[in-house]
Every structure is written in C-alpha cells, then in structure tokens.
Amino acid sequence: MYVVLEEIEGETARLVPDSSKEPLYVPVGELPEDYELGDVFLVEKKQDRAAVYLKRDIKEKERRLEVNRCKRKRLLNKSLNKKPDKH
User: Fold this and answer.
1) Which Pfam families does UniProt cross-reference here (predicted)?
2) Banded pLDDT at 83 (limits 50, 70, 90)
3) Are residues 24 and 1 in contact, defined by beta-carbon separation less than 8 angstroms?
C-alpha cells in the first residue's frame, strides 16, 4: 500500500493512503531524517510485530508529480482554448 506524507503535527506524521482507508499516523521518528511533505512511501507490515516499515519511493513520487503536471497542463490548455461566450 502506498501512502503520501500529508502533514506533520507535533511529533506525529499523517500519511494518507491511495485507497479510501483512514490516514495512518506514525511518530515522526519513524520517517527518514530528510523527509518532506508529499513524499510517497510503501508501507510494509512486519510479520513479527504490529509496527509498520515505511520505504520511501522516490520514483513513485516523481511519477505522480509528472502525471499531475500533465493533467494541469491539459486543463490550462483547455481553458485557454475555450472560446469566449458571444452575447
């Protein structure tokens, strides 16, 4: 399951999953030292314990950013090419 680091509040990080599941809350200490909001992590549950392991996926973050750039560009082009209403 992929999650995106959405917010840090105090010592708690809120990670939002791609699915419609509830956010995942983890201590900030479980994040890599050089984390930034918007980072994408693969969540791996360890069988021998209840805790989760977060593996940052830089390529997935870059892929998502590129998809969003393309969507934004299409939307901007669509609005620029829209013909004005004639009254």
Assistant:
1) DUF3006 (PF11213)
2) low
3) no
Asked if residue 3 lies in contact with residue 21, where contact means CB atoms within 8 angstroms, the answer is no
For 38, left (φ over 0), alpha (ψ -120 to 50), or beta?
Answer: left
Where are the domains positioned within the chain? 2-57
Q: Let me know if domain 2-57 sits in CATH 3.40.720.
A: no
Distances in Å between the Cα of 80 and the Cα atoms of 47, 50, 74, 76, 84 are: 53, 51, 10, 6, 10
CB contact at 8 A, 8 and 19: no
What does the alpha-carbon distance between residue 25 and residue 7 come to, in Å, rounded to a whole number? 10
**pTM value?**
0.72
